[in-house]
UniProtKB/TrEMBL annotation, chain A:
This is ER membrane protein complex subunit 4. Belongs to the EMC4 family. It comes from Gossypium anomalum. One of its GO terms (cellular component) is endoplasmic reticulum membrane. It is a multi-pass membrane protein. The keyword Acetylation does not apply. InterPro entries: TMEM85/Emc4. The chain crosses the membrane at residues 80-105, 125-145.
Automatic annotation (TrEMBL), chain B:
Residues 764-981 form the ER membrane protein complex subunit 1 C-terminal domain. It comes from Gossypium anomalum. InterPro entries: Beta-prop_EMC1_1st (IPR058545), EMC1 (IPR026895), EMC1_C (IPR011678), Quinoprotein_ADH-like_sf (IPR011047), WD40/YVTN_repeat-like_dom_sf (IPR015943). The lineage of its organism: Eukaryota, Viridiplantae, Streptophyta, Embryophyta, Tracheophyta. This is ER membrane protein complex subunit 1. GO terms for biological process: protein folding in endoplasmic reticulum.
Length: 179, 982
């Protein structure tokens, strides 16, 4: 992988191409062995293949729904963890809350990637995607709610006045017991 | 889960009481302590025996101390109480220091080497009188005897155990005993005095048993006044009440004979009123007139002869017998910047045993007292050393024409303290003479590193400790980044101004103020207070900061005032003013002019306000704020508090545009039969408050009532204003008030029944803490009152707050009558207090701690959270989280939180807190007889690395890590290459 990059850099002088060129007919110098027909690999029985494709599409759709529902289990799990963590601010509850916030966010970022394997022009991925997003948003809401119960969201008046400097006074008075 | 919650609770509990103590090796890093004894009243030398030579001194601050004669260090020191005035000291038997104190009623003997008390006896008598202490060589039944005359009774006391061997009363109502004489080698005592001011009385008493041997008296036509001077064991000299006739009275063999000599016979010019100077030189006495000091010799039968007339300030010592029958005495005279010390034999005025000229610092003023002592030189001649007490209360030892040591004992009586910044470090201006070079810096860090890695030998550890203590960083003469280095400017009772460096406590400059010096126009000047006059920090940085010294000519309140402006960097008095009005109050205003001079309002006894500085610019600034300036006065004798506003210009004869009349606005008259004002407290002018909101449990907000015009007043029942225990709980009460000084509105009033003063109080932010005695519980108590502004509490709309649509920060007027609520709570406290202060930080973010000057002369830090009126016995979980400590009936005293650690600040008077630039740190200066200074971080130094942080270790760690990264990278490259070739 990347390790080879240093060697195969811009300054290479020669190279040996070990790649299999057998499928590229233009570079085929050697004739095929007798009895070997390349066409049998390239061409397929159309009926069988359609059947196969349908089954695969079904399977993909099913899988996509499964994947879309996966965050629900996560949600339940998270809820349980949050209940365990309690409502005081300490390392455990902070960790749980932040993972509860981070998981949906990272999942939402990678929506495309999650459904990549099931991409097919015959499969409608919009439904599973929407469910997936909705469940993750639910998870996010749960995290935000937890954050609020921990008192980490500025939703109270106290959060906005805590560093309010004292009001200036109009009058000034001095004095005391005579020296 | 259980373990986790346990750990959590454990951490929570351990965070409740932060231990702010020091490690042993941190002592002296940031703190310094100086010991003083005060102005010496009497000194006795102890140089006869081999061993350490010392001098025993008693002072006006009621201290008995022995000092090392070589260096002036204190061997031991005892501070007697404020009522235990020392009347006389002496050394008996060569091993006991005898002190007579408390108006002659307590006689004590202290062991000379270590200062332990050997015995104490109390001497009472029929009436109040002069107290005299005489050591004799008399022996009664193998006991050496001390003769003490006090309270109208003559006592003979054994030196060994303090037992009174015999006593004799002199009960005659009008008899004033002046002298008690025990002629050496004789077995009798003369007691001489005046009866009814015109009769001379002489009693001859048997020294063995106190039997009266003879009583003679003579009546004179005139009246006696003042002291008598003893010129021989059987002759005294007195002055009559007109101060113009000298009486020479001799009572040889019990027969009184006298001679009257008018002073004008001795002196050609009329000298005016004369007084006798106390001295005990055989054959010579001295009188002092307005212009001169005159030495007069007594020749034979009452004949007098003037031997010398000196026009300078002249001081004479007591006689010192240097050999059999020979006496010497010392004279000190001023001549310009020099002083002349002359030692003469008593019998021959014209010869000198010693004549020395010593250069003296002008800032020490005149010599006030001199004590001499002799020693035998190697060539068997007599050498003399003299201990002199100067006008600024400093103490110096002179020997062989030089000052051997000096002590700045004026610092034992500080009146007021303020601080000043040091100069800014500029390029090209070398201020640090002892900058470390790179090699030394490296060496130091290597040593430190060794210490951190526990590789240091004991010598290394000692070197590290020495380096830490003597760090040149802390005693530089420039401003530092953290604001730790400042000048403490102290005004002493002697009228001298000292600037002490906060790094090591050394005196940077001192100035005996000329304006507080006796002069024709100002007879009895006294210093009153210090104020910061000019604190340049923004646009006037090239100006030096200066302080304002306010004084007064005389003790009465209508005496004329004196102002003096002193440069804080150099100590030079650049301006002084003799005012034409008196000074009753000084009010620093919160306005400064373009050169950062603060405007001050001086109120005189006639309630006129005078504005200073007298510049047109100042008057312009003042005119614009004129209607917002108020002042108040607290008349504690009559129990009246009055508030004033300023009217237009003075209606006096002289047109003075800087003078304003006052108009009375309000007054609070406390009923004099039930309340007497004993204490007031206000907020410090320079106190910074970070926020007006206090967050409480469940995200609730309380708004603090923060006003700099808040006055705390404590009153007690007039009967209960005396000592604790002088009244029953039913007759005694303590009433506290919180008053707005602009409108005179009483914000809060509370009565503590059965309580009594003295009250010590401190007001800060929106709370006041005060300390008093509870007669019912027989314990001291501390109470806290917190005051909140309820009218702001309805600012609850988050959206309004988010967009800033609220009036919480708009200027407020005291006339808007904020609705306030108060919360208060009381706790028992073990100690009685001498002073109380609160920590002060630059922005007011750091939590506060109270600094309590205990009766044991130590400073104790107490977290303000212990004095929180919201404490309850069982705080809820939310309250616990907020940091509320469960309520206990008494405040805890944590031994580690004594910030004076093992030291004592004897005679503690006040604690001064100054904010450093570093938010976490307060500079604390406590003064009394001793001085103590330290840095204190109420919530630890959260904003800086600790002093013992090893930068070298950090650097080395970083270098090592970088090196390790490189090495491993190279190794991994190599390995990969090998893998590839395989």
């Amino acid at each position: 992988m990347e390790k080879g990059k240093g060697v195969m850099g811009a300054g290479r002088r020669w190279a040996v191409d070990f790649s299999d060129n057998s499928t590229a007919p233009s570079s085929r110098d050697i004739p095929d062995p007798p009895g070997f027909t390349r066409a049998s690999v390239d061409q397929d029985d159309s009926a069988v293949s359609r059947q196969k494709n349908d089954a695969e599409a079904n399977w993909k759709a099913q899988k996509a729904w499964e994947v879309a529902q996966a965050p629900f289990k996560n949600l339940l799990m998270m809820g349980f963890m949050m209940w365990m963590a309690g409502s005081t601010v300490h390392l455990f509850s902070i960790g749980i809350t932040f993972s509860a916030l981070w998981q949906p966010i990272s999942a939402l970022q990678g929506v495309g990637k999650v459904f990549e394997p099931y991409k097919d022009n015959k499969v409608d991925l919009l439904g599973p995607k929407l469910l997936f997003i909705a469940l993750n948003l639910g998870g996010l809401a749960l995290g935000v709610w937890k954050l609020n119960t921990l008192g980490l969201l500025p939703t109270h008046a106290s959060d906005w006045v805590s560093s309010l400097s004292p009001a200036q006074e109009v009058e000034y008075s001095g004095g005391g017991i005579p020296l | 889960m259980a373990i986790m919650s346990f750990i959590f609770v454990f951490f929570f509990l351990s965070s409740l009481q932060p231990i702010l103590s020091l490690y042993e090796d941190q002592v002296g890093l940031m703190d310094w302590h100086q010991q003083y004894i005060g102005k010496v009243k009497q000194a006795v030398f102890h140089t006869h025996k081999t061993g350490r030579k010392r001098v025993v001194a008693s002072t006006e601050q009621n201290i008995i101390a022995t000092l090392d004669l070589r260096r002036g260090e204190i061997f031991w020191r005892h501070v007697l109480g404020p009522n235990d005035v020392v009347d006389g000291i002496d050394i008996a038997l060569g091993k006991y220091v005898i002190t007579l104190s408390s108006g002659g009623s307590i006689l004590r003997a202290w062991n000379l080497p270590d200062g332990q008390m050997v015995w104490e006896s109390s001497l009472h008598g029929p009436k109040h009188s002069k107290s005299l202490l005489i050591t004799t060589n008399l022996i009664i039944e193998k006991d050496n005897v001390l003769i003490v005359f006090s309270n109208g009774r003559l006592n003979a006391v054994s030196c060994i155990d303090g037992e009174v061997l015999w006593k004799r009363d002199f009960e005659e109502e009008s008899l004033e005993v002046q002298q008690v004489i025990q002629p050496a080698g004789s077995g009798f005592i003369y007691v001489v005095g005046f009866a009814a001011s015109s009769q001379f009385e002489m009693y001859k008493i048997n020294a063995k048993n106190g039997e009266l041997l003879k009583h003679e008296s003579t009546v004179f036509s005139g009246r006696f006044s003042g002291e008598v001077s003893l010129v021989s064991s059987e002759t005294v000299v007195a002055l009559d009440s007109t101060g113009s006739i000298l009486l020479t009275i001799s009572f040889h063999n019990g027969k009184i004979s006298s001679q009257q000599t008018p002073v004008s016979n001795l002196l050609e010019d009329s000298p005016g009123l004369a007084v006798i100077i106390h001295s005990s030189i055989t054959g010579i006495f001295a009188i002092k007139t307005d212009a001169a000091t005159i030495f007069i010799r007594v020749i034979g039968e009452g004949k007098l002869e003037v031997v010398e007339k000196t026009n300078h300030e002249t001081v004479v010592s007591d006689a010192l017998s240097i050999s059999e029958g020979q006496q010497a005495f010392a004279l000190v005279q001023h001549a310009g910047s020099n002083i002349h010390l002359t030692v003469k034999p008593a019998h021959n005025w014209d010869s000198n045993l010693l004549k020395e000229r010593i250069k003296m610092d002008q800032q020490r003023g005149f010599v006030h007292k001199v004590f001499i002592n002799n020693y035998i030189r190697t060539d068997r001649s007599h050498g003399f050393r003299a201990l002199i007490v100067m006008e600024d209360h400093s103490l110096l030892l002179l020997q062989q024409g030089a000052i051997v040591w000096s002590r700045e004992d004026g610092l034992a009586s500080i009146i007021d303290v303020t601080t000043s910044e040091l100069p800014v470090e500029k390029a090209g201006v070398s201020v640090a003479k002892v900058e470390l070079n790179l090699f030394e810096w490296l060496k130091g860090h290597v040593l430190k590193l060794k210490g951190t890695l526990m590789l240091a030998t004991p010598e290394d550890i000692a070197a590290i400790q020495y380096m830490r203590l003597k760090s040149s960083e802390k005693s530089k003469m420039t401003r530092d980044h953290n604001g730790f280095r400042k000048l403490l400017i102290a005004l002493t009772r002697a009228g001298k101004l000292f600037a002490l460096h906060t790094g090591d406590g050394r005196i940077v400059w001192s100035n005996l103020l000329q304006s507080l010096h006796k002069s024709e126009s100002c007879r009895q000047p006294i210093g009153l207070n210090l104020y910061q006059w000019q604190v340049p920090h923004h646009h006037a940085l090239d100006e030096n900061p200066s302080v304002l010294v306010v004084g007064r000519c005389g003790p009465s309140s209508d005496a004329l005032g004196v102002l003096s402006l002193v440069d804080s960097y150099t100590g030079k008095e650049f301006s002084s003013l003799c005012l034409v009005h008196s000074v009753a109050q000084v009010i620093p205003l919160p306005y400064t002019d373009s050169t950062e001079q603060r405007l001050h309002l001086l109120i005189d006894a006639d309630k006129h306000a005078h504005l200073y500085p007298k510049t047109p610019e100042a008057i312009d600034i003042f005119q614009s704020e004129f209607s917002n300036v108020y002042w108040y006065s607290v008349d504690d004798d009559n129990g009246i508090i009055k508030g004033y506003a300023l009217k237009t210009k003075c209606s006096g004869i002289v047109a003075d545009e800087f003078c304003f009349d006052s108009r009375e606005l309000w007054s609070i008259v406390l009923p004099s039969e039930s309340e007497k004002i004993i204490t007031t407290a206000t907020r410090k002018l320079n106190e910074a408050v970070h926020t007006q909101a206090k967050l409480i449990a469940d995200q609730e907000v309380m708004y603090k009532y923060i006003s700099s015009n808040l006055l705390f007043v404590a009153t007690v029942a007039p009967k209960a204003s005396g000592e604790i225990g002088s009244v029953t709980p039913e007759e005694s009460w303590l009433v506290v008030y919180l008053i707005d000084t602009v409108t005179g509105r009483v914000l809060h009033r509370m009565t503590h029944h059965g309580s009594q003063g003295p009250v010590q109080a401190v007001l800060s932010e929106n709370w006041v803490v005060y300390h008093y005695f509870n007669l019912r519980a027989h314990r001291y108590e501390m109470s806290v009152i917190e005051i909140y502004d309820q009218s702001r509490a309805d600012n609850k709309d988050v959206w309004k707050l988010v967009v800033g649509n609220h009036n919480l920060t708009s200027p407020v007027s005291s006339y808007s009558r904020a609705e306030v609520i108060t919360k208060s709570q009381s706790y028992f406290f073990t100690h009685s207090l001498k002073a109380i202060a609160v920590t002060l930080t630059v922005k007011g973010i750091t939590s506060k701690q109270l600094l309590i000057g205990t009766i044991g002369d130590q400073v104790l830090a107490l977290d303000k959270r212990f004095l929180d009126p919201r404490r309850s016995v069982n705080p809820t979980q939310a309250e616990r989280e907020e940091g509320i400590i469960p309520l206990t009936d008494s405040l805890p005293i944590i031994p580690q939180s004594y910030i004076t650690h093992s030291l004592r600040v004897e005679g503690l008077q006040s604690i001064i807190t100054v904010a450093a630039k570093l938010e976490s740190t307060t500079l604390v200066f406590a003064h009394g007889l001793d001085l103590f200074f330290t840095h204190y971080a109420p919530s630890r130094t959260y904003d800086s690395l600790t002093e013992d942080f090893s930068y070298a270790l950090l650097l080395i760690t970083i270098v090592a890590l970088v090196a390790a990264i490189f090495v491993t990278w190279i190794l991994s490259q190599r390995k990969e290459l090998q893998d590839r070739w395989r």
